[in-house]
Amino acid sequence: MSSSEIDRLIQLLSKLPGLGPRSARRAALHLIKRRESLLTPLADAMHEAAVAIKTCSVCGNLDTKDPCAICADPRRDQALICVIEEVGDLWALERTGSFKGLYHVLGGTLSALEGIGPDDLNVAGLINRARRPEVTEVILAMNATVEGQTTAHYITDRLADCDVTVSRLAHGVPVGGELDYLDDGTLTAALRSRRPF
Amino acid sequence: MSSSEIDRLIQLLSKLPGLGPRSARRAALHLIKRRESLLTPLADAMHEAAVAIKTCSVCGNLDTKDPCAICADPRRDQALICVIEEVGDLWALERTGSFKGLYHVLGGTLSALEGIGPDDLNVAGLINRARRPEVTEVILAMNATVEGQTTAHYITDRLADCDVTVSRLAHGVPVGGELDYLDDGTLTAALRSRRPF
What we know:
By secondary structure, chain A is an alpha/beta fold. Chain A contains seven helices and six strands, in the order H-H-H-E-E-E-H-E-H-E-H-E-H.
């Protein structure tokens, strides 16, 4: 139907999350029409990212430096480690600007169905970091899914003989949320964890 | 929040149709995690497309050759020219495999609101092609929108002194469509254009 260059571009674009075959065709046309302003700059940005981005050997974050900018920043609180599933969760927490400690990216969750065990996640690295004398608290910030919470329980067990407090994110009513639209589990959790006004 | 390389990649990805800031972040992470299998091949495919893809000087199609593979194919019916708004429409018609003539890409529609006049579209090229003795029919396959149909009327007027039949796509019930869900305009058109069973 069209040249093999366009077909290959469409085929690769359709592998991006959120783009199906139809939207990949639209994206390819959009790119080819904007050769100077978008296609070439995006190709360059991808090449640069492919060359420059590394995984931080300390925390698993993605950055051009290893250790990453967060691990290397002496102003971050070295006593706090926040454990998250993926780098996207780290970005979400950083956008809030309300956490000044360090991170640890697990790289997923335990999943019997998908055959992901403890050795497939960066758990050993976390235990090693938690043993350091300056670390006092490990915050488990896994997703509030069955897999996330299973993983959180497993890590709590593994951290039992480290001298750290283990905490987790609060469950409750999302800011801006309406009670009538919340599920029973969230509402029950919010009621149980009620605080003085 | 993350390195400037990642930020730039996210910022450029968010300019693709169908990707907002959140899905652009997801796409960037997806790409960086699949460096060998997706990120580098996609960057290469984009560079190749940026260098190789040209606009066909005859019909406005996108291809690595000029004239494009369709215009250069002697087996295509040189008597038929199908006029479409965009290259995506040409791809859609080619996927059906039911048209064996040539195409002419207008590059948009007339739009008083957006200030797009006849000189911004490839109308002059169409008139020149329609004057050729071998051309007998021009099929107007613009979208069934107000802008598309306005453009179709304008082109019909401009083709008045060319020796060609001007036709348009049929309106009617889409294949697989249910009458109860169709708009009145489509149903009226389908009734008016009814055919012997």
